Amino acid sequence: MKYLNISNTELKSSNIIMGNMRINELSLDGAEKLIRTAMDEGINFFDHADIYGSGECEEMFSTAIKMNSDIREKMILQSKCGINTKGNYYDLSKDYILNSVDGILSRLKTDYLDILLLHRPDTLVEPEEVAEAFSKLKESGKVKHFGVSNHNPAQIELLQKYTDEKLIINQLQFGAAHTNIVDSGIAVNMDINQSFDRDGSVLEYCRLKDITIQAWSPFQHGFFDGVFLGDMEKFPELNQTINELAEKYGVTSTAIATAWITRHPANIQVILGTTKPSRIIDACKGSDIPLTRQEWYKIYKAAGNMVP
Ligand SMILES: NC(=O)c1ccc[n+]([C@@H]2O[C@H](COP(=O)([O-])OP(=O)(O)OC[C@H]3O[C@@H](n4cnc5c(N)ncnc54)[C@H](OP(=O)(O)O)[C@@H]3O)[C@@H](O)[C@H]2O)c1
């Protein structure tokens, strides 16, 4: 397992993260086995959100692992807030953030979060309020570090103008079948759709600012449209290329799909969403596979993208 120093902080994290969005599909025993497998494989970073299973996933996580201070100290715990699923709107107001964190801490049975992310941008955001909430959370010791998810560079700059807390994470969807954050950079100045910059060069911005990118839904295509791995009907060339490389490196296709992300020199972390211990073991083998430049671009092209 490869470990990274997250954005020049004291946090030393595995480059593979266990995501907990789906663990409420499991029994408590199943969830415990999944978490223990992740830890045995060297994963020390666990991603949550207050909305996963409407709080059930955070609760199950701490109950399944029988949270205590010994286990807590071995983990980097991150959660997110800002989506009000009951009313179907975004809320980054001070009170909403503060209340959400209290709920998260009580469900995870911990006194502090290592990192709190703002889950999605709220166009009604008042950054002064976010800054106040962050200060209170930091002063009280409830949150050590802060970051965002699904934010573009200008939205990050806006928040950063008001808060002294450095935003250290931006969680974005990224995988071999969802390549938005690299597309426009590869096809600069071309008269094709791929060169259209949807997200304000967010990859290059995060690298410039030492913001660690975390790739969510690494094996999905579209917005939860399904898993591309093994889908020979929609992604024949991509799967064939990945399978060939899996054979070459003596690993599974899951490891190669993971390695395609970890190979990027931006030190992107991969957030696994599987509920199967065996897939965690497979994916962790992709933590540090030295895919060549040619192999990396071959996968990119096999997914239907142009390398001009
Ligand atoms: N910031 C955000 O907006 C955001 C949004 C979504 C998710 N997230 C985070 O990202 C994490 C991962 O998201 P995700 O669960 O969508 O990621 P994912 O790992 O791409 O997808 C997991 C799903 O794919 C299936 N799967 C995984 N590997 C497979 C394979 N080799 N063959 C066939 N099926 C496979 C899993 O089934 P099995 O369980 O049967 O393996 C599971 O249903 C979440 O847990 C959450 O922490 C963040």
TrEMBL record:
Residue stretches making up the NADP-dependent oxidoreductase domain: 16-300
InterPro entries for this protein: AKR, AKR_Detox_Biosynth, NAD(P)_OxRdtase_dom_sf, NADP_OxRdtase_dom
Protein name: Aldo/keto reductase
Organism listed in the record: Clostridium sardiniense
